[in-house]
Design a protein that fits this description.
CATH class of the largest domain: Mainly Alpha
Distance between the termini: 31 Å
Number of domains: 2
Structural class: mainly alpha
Helix content: 55-70%
CATH topology of the largest domain: Arc Repressor Mutant, subunit A
Number of strands: 3
Order of helices and strands: HEHHEEHH
Largest sheet: 3 strands, antiparallel
Radius of gyration: 18 Å
Number of helices: 5
Shape: elongated
């Protein structure tokens, strides 16, 4: 996990994002144990309640599951849930603005697709 936090967004969202990224990149496997809120708080030098807030959101989204007295673990469907959510965000954050800008510049959809194919090789 990333060692430093910044002022770009609330700390609990950064904790949530770091755990999600670790699941997506394979650093945390399905069924794998996630650091406790106290471990996260110590690692990042933050209040445990702040770490708990990020972890709690992941639990409510079905990405982590809590085993009482044992800890938090990566849920079976965690990676699929994260991928689907990020695809929706990607569409909203990148594809829609891209299409709007292409329309302003009178770039056809075919030309836009060609540009994307050429740029990706």
């Amino acid at each position: 996990m990333k060692k430093t936090l910044d002022e770009s967004k609330p700390i609990y969202l950064q904790i949530k994002a770091y755990i999600a990224d670790a699941i997506l990149d394979g650093s945390l496997d399905v069924g794998g144990k996630v650091p406790s809120t106290n471990e996260l708080a110590t690692f990042y030098n933050i209040n445990p309640a702040t770490a708990r807030q990020g972890v709690t959101e992941l639990v409510s989204e079905g990405i982590l599951c809590k085993q009482r007295g044992v800890g938090m673990f990566v849920a079976e469907e965690a990676k699929n849930i994260l991928i689907e959510a990020r695809k929706k965000d990607f569409y909203q954050d990148f594809i829609i603005p891209l299409k709007m800008e292409a329309d302003k510049l009178e770039i056809s959809h075919d030309e836009l697709l060609r540009m994307m194919k050429e740029g990706g090789e």
